[in-house]
Amino acid sequence: MSFEKVYSGILIDLKISDDRITEFLDILCEACSSQIALDFYSSPAFSVDKKIQTIRKAFGGKGFPEELIGFAEILIKNKRISDTKKIAQFYKERVEQSTGLVRGQVFSAAALKDKEMKEIEGVIENVLKVSKVSLSFIQDKKLIGDVRVEAGGCVIDGSLICKYKNLENKLKGQTL
User: Fold this and answer.
1) Are 26 and 51 in a shared domain?
2) 123 lies in which domain range?
3) Domain holding 43: CATH number?
4) Are the C-beta atoms of residues 81 and 91 closer than 8 Å to each other?
5) pLDDT digits over 77-126, tens only?
C-alpha cells in the first residue's frame, strides 16, 4: 500500500468536512514547498519537537481542528512532511472519486472538435464506471494519430506510437 493511500485514508477517516481538510492541505503544501522549509523539516540539526512547535505556531489560532494539526505532526514524526503535496493530491482524487468525479487529461496530435471531446468523455465515463469526468484536452505534436488518455489512474493509449511499440514487443518475443 502506498504512503499516499495510508495518509489520505487517515484524513478520510476524520470527521471533518472535505473542504476544511482540503483548505488545510493547501496551506500546508504552500508552507512546506519552499526550499527553506524543506531544508528545515529534513534537517537533523532541528529536533522533531522544534519542527512540531513551528507547525503549531503556524497553524495555531487559524481555527483548524486539532486533528489536522496532529496530522501535520504525524507527517513530521514520520519524515513525510516533504510528501505533503503527493498526499494532498491523492486525498483530493479519492474525495472526487467518492463523489463520482474523475479528472484526467487527453493528449491528441491535433485539436479535437467539441463533438469528439464529448464522445471521449462519454467513453471514459463508461470505461471507468463513473458519473462524471473532467478532462483537460492537450495538443501534443509528438503523437501520431488517435489519442492518449490519462484518467482515474488508468492510461488508455490509442496512439500509433503505442501500437507500433506493442507490435515491436510482440515481434521481439517470437523466434524467427
Assistant:
1) yes
2) 100-173
3) 1.10.520
4) no
5) 999 999 999 999 999 888 887 888 888 899 988 888 999 899 888 888 88
